[in-house]
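In this section we walk through a basic example: taking a raw amino acid sequence and producing a predicted 3D structure, encoded as discrete structure tokens. The instruction is simple. Fold the sequence below.
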Amino acid sequence: MSICNISDKQELERLKELKRRGVDGSKLLKEMTDEFDPETGALRIGNIRLDKFNLSDDEKLIMGELIKEGNDYTNQRRGVMSWEQTEALAQELEPKLKMKSGQTLNAEQLNSLAGAVGGLTKKAYIAAQTAATEPTEINLAISQGAREELNMALASLSGAKSEWGRAGSIQRKLNEAIMSRDAKLIRQALKLGTSKFKEEDIVSLVSKLDPNDYFGQYRFLDGLRKPQMGDYIMELWYNSILSGPLTHIRNFVGNTSNLIFEASTKPFASLYDFTRSAITKNERSIRIGEVGKDVFAGFSGLRDGLGKAFSIMKNGFTIDDAVKLELRNKQAFKGGLGTIVNVPSRLLQASDTLTRAYLMSNELYGQAYSKAKNLKLKGVQLRNKVAELMANPSPEMMRSVHEWATRNVFQEDGTKFIKSIGKLRGALDIKGIKPITFIVPFVETPGNLVKVGLRATPLGIFNLKGSPLGEQILKNKYKTEEDKFSQNRKSAQNFGRAILGSLIMAGMATWAASGNITGQGPTDKKERDALYRIGWKPQSIKVPGMGWISYKNITPLNIPLSILGNMIDGYIYDDVAPDTQGLTTLFLSEIKSISDQSFFQGINGFINAIYGTDQERQNYFSRFATSIIPQAYQQTMRIYDPTIYSTSTFGDAMKRALGLNDGLSPKYDALGNKITGQRASGLPFFPSKETISPTEQKLIDLGVQYLSPPPDRIGKRKMTDEEYSEFTRKVGEELNKELLNDRKLPRDLSSDKAQDEVDDIRAKIYKDVRNEMFPDNKNEPLTFNDNSVQNPNTVLDNVVLYAKAVGTDPVTAFNYIFSGQKIRRIDNKTIIVERMTLKESEKIKQQLGSTPEMRLDHIVPLELGGSNGRNNLQLIPEEKWASFTRSENHLGKLLREGKIEKSKAQKMIKEFKQGKIKEKDILNIK
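The resulting token sequence is shown next.
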């Protein structure tokens, strides 16, 4: 095989026809050429320098016609020519090239030579396989000849590697040419197909493939991967949970908000780079002049991105994947069925591919502009140089552009922790089914979302790799000037991101201090429940006239805003001070916020199912089982009917997932309001408005923050879902009426005493409704199914709360833990425990010989750090019990506001109840 002689009869005939028509090749060539410099003789058509080819003018004319006739000529004129386009052009031009000895090859010639080496490598490989199988003299001679021919081509190639290829991709091909794309194809085929075919059969099959049909070669390799039954199940499950429209909207919101944020960092990055350059006397790497123009450049890259996105939707892979033979995740379902099944996952991939195309073109322009400005060019010369650099970027430019785009579509390599989680998912494999994947379905992308968010905080300055601080600490050693440019640019970009995010945090601090930016909210789950009842939302911003708007999917600001929200929440609700304990609390709260946004959600649910109640376990496995029903369908049904229904059995859960709500019982809250889900949880354009009923406002004013669910058993029988739904509704209606009665619930009670009164009112209503609904069971006690009452806090909630309690007062905290008392919250370094249940309270009163006019009193009220232990309980007349209210209420308020220490408050309330001091001694404390 020779690549240096013209032997194309068809083109010779075309040349003769042109001569017969009297066409002057030199004249016509100049007319059809976009650029012609009479001094240098530089000839261009599109982005192809014809003068570098050792051809006659007539031969160049033929080449020009071929280029002009190509469908991709517009792309060539635009200044961007893809790897595949250059490959195709090189295959057309190969027979027409005649090179002078020692002449440097240009991009097209290099690619043609690389392709020739690839073909010869394949030829030598197959010949060697044949000789090994049948070592005849003829086969051995053919193998030896093929090796010699390959060695000659490799010698030519080694002398040609000094010139870089178009868009950096040809250089990468040259670096891989010795291994050969065709040899790589054979190796991958041998690796994937030995379970189905013999080696010689695979080599034979590969030799029959069309070398120019990259899609066919990719499909051939993909077809060698035999899916297992588990692969079909996993593919269905993944696409089911990804099929919800809200998933794709959240992905779009995250990508778009990140693009806007990145564009806004340029001025800050440029300022940092200007300062660095002035101090170090090094050239600039990023400039303010990029702003605006890079956005338009990014949009110009969408044409290529759209093509690749459509290819993903149609084929499941792009031309880049096919050319590089980089197989994507195994697709079990093939053909048309596979296309339908994989629409959700392909949509996400297509969206990210389109975003990546924008980002790469955007960043490529930015780098080209700064490099051109470093040459002190202006006007037309500047524009021409930018176009030239974009058309022929160096490998280092393309490497850094690709790295930047990959990072901003959240697909960069994860940390060691993320990678370990990823390995754990695949540790157990049962015929293609990976059970741990069902618990942690996604790892890399959520982990990268957190990384990107943290870079938009002051912590971003401490990111050692490619950061301002890291530049000084690591003393980066640059391999080349281009590497130095790339690293300096990355450092400036990191600085711009960290500064902009920090400025946003600082600017929003005042708004957050007014309670208008939320984090996780109060540590006490009961307080959070009270806030939920009035429309409050965690991890949200309150916008006047609109309500609470979630920032959970506004990347990367979700992380800095959650840090800010948790700081304010800790101060408002949990008295967190700016000390070591406060920082620990903030850190734990932020972990909770992050866990609500990423792959920890699956882990949280699994842990709660293991350590929670029977109902929690059943709910978890019901959610898992119904996840096979596409989320697109389930979300549509919930938008149509957002009511939350009781699904205590698997059958009910399946009916709800299918939208078959007839026969299901709606859930009601403690005040008799029907509970509904949010139609579009976590989306910024679906706000949640605050709605406060008169009853809820009164409870808030009294400090009553938690209304436990009504009992669900009559005697030993558990109510049916239908019975319990109706029982809860009736109790709530009656409770609304009673709580608004100021005679039955005075407005000047302390929070503890108000809670006691509310519990007594509810206990009476329970009995009245029981007698109405179940007249045959009037004497049966109403009880709770202890295994079905949901734990108020999740496991991670409790970790955060108990860690804070131990850090505040370890002796008291461990005393409560070992005595079985549940910690509720921390007030001014005082651990507040949960009230005992109504059932426990009635039991203790009975044991102490209570009469109707007696009340059970906490000597040291819970709001002052008292416990539920027997040594802190006493039976006293109701009149005396009521006389303690004002003093307890006042001391509790002082403690929460930090105006009195716990020890002094406890001492004073004890002395008051013993008659040693008077009420005025307490009320006079301001």
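Looking at the output, two observations stand out. The first helix runs from residue 9 to 20. Residues 805 and 811 are 10 Å apart (CA to CA). In the next section we compare this with other chains.
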